[in-house]
């Protein structure tokens, strides 16, 4: 009879180490897949306008002499597609900068930032835009908070009828100061809510073919929010539309400062 050798059981630490190593590998792998996907999306998005521009350049070369009437139309088209490419490249650059951005944080009055953005946005959008809120200090970077709010208000306007009001409110919970942007537009279904902050994600481009966009706006917002150590969530507005809630942690020292 052979004697069975005792099987050494692995110490718990080794098992835990192996598990966290596997988890790490998985994360690195997921990240690599996402990066490949991102590069491929970006290339594809740029390829489309480039192809369209080339087609019109060819058309102009071959036909313009005989058919001068096509010239203005082709030039307009080339201009529009070039603009689309420029916006996309600008967004990609913003995204790559925001990734590494170390922002200068300072006590910032949310109300003052919102007020500035609202004044500018009123000139740019058709919908009535109202603001409610009093001076509220948070630790953050004013310029990038303005950028975040501009993007949220632009979206609210883009995805709402021209007469549907948009509101911006500052409110305070026991733990956070918040800026809430509400619209009464088409809203976002729960299945899509989880994805809209992803790069290049657009809810059903077929639903909104007339609305130009790259799907990068909210990805930039998410990065800027993170750089400001804030959080952002989206939920349904009542009775219709969406609301985006931008939150900053409350800090005792800042509350005292504002009441001085
Ligand atoms: P886009 O350039 O397509 O607007 P974003 O990253 O800003 O890209 O937004 C991603 C998607 O989220 C949009 O395509 C749109 O479908 C949806 N979305 C964003 N904001 C709103 C909103 N206020 N109401 C309805 N849908 C929205």
Automatic annotation (TrEMBL):
Entry annotated with the keyword Thylakoid: no
Keyword annotations of the record: Kinase, Membrane, Phosphoprotein, Transferase, Transmembrane, Transmembrane helix, Two-component regulatory system
Reaction(s) the record says it catalyses: ATP + protein L-histidine = ADP + protein N-phospho-L-histidine
Domain Histidine kinase: 41-252
Catalytic activity, EC: 2.7.13.3
GO MF terms held by the record: kinase activity
First-listed, main subcellular location of the protein, grouped into a coarse class: membrane
Subcellular location: Membrane
Protein name per Swiss-Prot or TrEMBL: histidine kinase
Full protein: residues contained: 198 to 457 of 457
